[in-house]
Amino acid sequence: LAPFPPLIASTIFVFSILEQLNNLVGSSIAATVFSSGLLALFVALIAITMSVRVTHLRHANAANNEQTVVRSALAGFIHLAISATSFSIIISLLTGYILLARFLTYELIWVWLVLASLYLLIHLMTDLCDSIFMPNSRSGKILKSTLSLSDRHLSLASTLLSAIGKTMLVLLAIVALLSGTYGTTTPMALLQKVVEIWGGKGLGGFTIIPAHALNAVLCLVIGWYILRSARRWLDNDFLPKTMMDRGMRASLVTLFTNVGYVLIILLTLSTLGIEWNRLAWIVSALSVGIGFGLQEIVKNFISGLILLTERPVKVGDLISISGVEGDIRRINVRATEIQLSDRSTVIVPNSQLISQNVRNATMGNAQGVVTIALTFPLNIDPEQTRTLLLDAYLQHAAIQSAPAPSVSFKELGPNGIVLSVTGYVASPRVVSGTKSDLLYEILKRLRAAGISLSQSQTMVIERVPAANKEVSE
Question: Model pTM greater than 0.90?
Answer without folding.
Answer: no
